[in-house]
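Structure first, sequence second, as always.
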């Protein structure tokens, strides 16, 4: 099965960026662990800091994968276009946030994404991606 992992802005800096909030592991090394843990999955990984590129990736993955694990990062709280892209596609989407967005600033409680996805995992660190993949695999 094919699963796309799509990460939004600043997640290319995982491991260096606010390690007290996001941990000290970069996503590339975590992705290698995911590939080992789920050998049956063909992973397609995409990260961008640009909103429109994320919309394009959601559209492309939305019709040729079995599921998408999406962390839209800050665009979660601002992007109507990303919410609309999720509503437009066929593949099930699981939203993941590394930190607990509900335990942080008020603006992080607003989401243009959560109502459009199958479910959301927030606050469980990088393990949230693994849990999302497990759900998609068992589906
Ligand atoms: C995040 C939470 C967002 O509020 C923030 O803007 C991010 C990362 C998370 O994974 O915890 O960049 O999506």
């Amino acid at each position: 099965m094919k699963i796309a992992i799509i990460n939004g802005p600043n997640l290319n800096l995982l491991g260096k960026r606010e390690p007290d909030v996001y941990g000290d592991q970069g996503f590339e090394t975590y992705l290698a662990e995911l590939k080992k843990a789920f050998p049956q999955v063909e992973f397609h990984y995409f990260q961008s800091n640009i909103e429109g590129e994320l919309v394009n990736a959601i559209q492309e993955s939305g019709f040729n994968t079995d599921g998408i694990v999406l962390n839209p990062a800050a665009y979660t709280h601002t992007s109507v276009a990303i919410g609309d892209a999720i509503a437009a596609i066929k593949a099930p989407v699981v939203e993941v946030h590394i930190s607990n967005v509900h335990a942080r600033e008020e603006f992080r409680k607003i989401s243009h994404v959560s109502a459009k996805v199958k479910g959301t995992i927030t606050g469980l660190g990088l393990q949230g991606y693994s849990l999302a993949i497990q759900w998609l695999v068992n589906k």
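Margin note: The longest helix spans residues 127-138.
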